[in-house]
Amino acid sequence: MKKRLFTPGPTPVPEHVLLTMAEPIIHHRHPEFRELFERLSKNLQYLFQTSQDVISLTSSGSGSMEAAVVNLLSPGDTAITVNGGKFGERWGELCRANGVNAVEIAVEWGTAVTADEIVESIKAHPETKAVFVTHSETSTGVAIDVKTIAQAVHANSGAVFVVDGITAVGALEMRMDEWGLDVVVTGSQKGLMIPPGLAFIALSEKAWKLVESSHCHRYYFDLLKARKSLKGNDTPWTPATTLLIGVDVALEMIRKETLEKVWERHSRLAAAVRAGVQALGLRLLAKSPSNALTAIWNPEVPDVKVFNNALKKKYGITVAGGQGHLKDKIFRISHLGYYDELDVLSVIGAIELSLRDAGYVFEPGAGVKAAQTVFLNESW
Ligand SMILES: Cc1ncc(COP(=O)(O)O)c(C=O)c1O
Question: Are strands 160-164 and 183-187 parallel, antiparallel or unpaired?
Fold first, then answer.
């Protein structure tokens, strides 16, 4: 059976990236690696739309989130976090684990936090040093308007604005410098199309000033050390060389397609998935959906297990389930990274076949037709 991965991380890895990573290992303190690291670090700046250094960390995405907290803040500081899903919740957990007073804005999972809600919290806590948000909340499929929120944060406080871009970078429009995002983090197994194991972080001048004065405990994730090494195209510790070789190739692909076209592709595929599932009578969870993934309420069938089993075992499709209190209530389809129109038609087709197996009543072909109509009606 042909297996097809539709999870929002890990995401599929392009074949020629896999082949390049299979080449013999190189040593990270040799010119060969330095040359590659210099090139990929420059391409990461393009990906982040920043002129600042983008630091590569050997960890999953959460490592870059921890790096942001422990480098920016000190115990006793106040930070605003937004709990609108599993990953927004994580910002609060990371702050509390490091003695930072996290003021949490609770947002109903499935809805997007607004600039007004954040300003209200800033006004109630003028001592706030950092505001942490999640650009694309993977647990709910919600995207927030980071550009508008960044403006509101800067207009109303001196706090740094920190963005979890883990399922946004390389999928949703995101312009770090132009939009005034002080810190952006991401991971390798998402829009970058690489296996899990790398994280990336970039900081504005204002954020770097905070790093110099903060004193949370840190060693492995000391960003001042990492920045110093990066000046010599080097890393403080042994990097995940093979994954970085993959990143180099993936970034060349993104450069070739251009970031604008990558964003456009994600928007097109997302529109088709949303149209396809809604045409089948399924409902979306997110009120302002992310172009990286689509979260869908489970079909109203007597036994959802039959639907899930058919998708996975009969048609070879892996989608993601729900997290936290949404476990067993939703499923999530990724269109993040290495996907095209035919991938979308195949996943919608498989959903139709699995719904039929589960006894769900719908007009056969309606989902595929709606998705295809999106592709047929738009000119690109
Ligand atoms: C938005 C978001 N933030 C944070 C994380 C955590 O990243 P990791 O699992 O790579 O540590 C994820 C992973 O799915 C994510 O999607």
Answer: parallel
Tokens at 350, concatenated: 């498989």
Q: Would the pTM of this model clear 0.70, i.e. be above it? A: yes
Distance 51 CA to ligand 1 centre (A): 25
Ligand 1 pocket, residue 164 CB under 6 Å:
yes
Predicted confidence (pLDDT) at residue 281 exceeds the cutoff of 80: yes
Q: What's the pLDDT score for residue 28? A: 96
Decide which of 57 and 380 is more confident: 57
Structure tokens at 37: 């690291």
In sequence order, what are the beta bridge partners of 163?
133, 184
Structure tokens at 133: 């948000």
Helix 241-257 crosses helix 259-279 at what angle (to 10 degrees)?
90
pLDDT for 46-74, tens place per residue? 999 999 999 999 999 999 999 999 999 99
φ/ψ (deg, to 5) at 105: -95, 115
Mutation test of ligand 1: which of 58, 87, 135 has the most ligand atoms closer than 8 Å to its C-beta? 87
Cα 362 to ligand 1 centre (Å): 35
Domains of the chain listed by start with CATH number: 4-9+258-377 (3.90.1150.10), 15-257 (3.40.640.10)
Question: Ligand 1 pocket, 334 CB below 6 A?
Answer: no
Q: Is residue 373 within 6 Å of ligand 1 at its C-beta?
A: no
To which residue do tokens 């930070």 refer?
A: 79
Ligand 1 center from residue 366 Cα (angstroms): 33
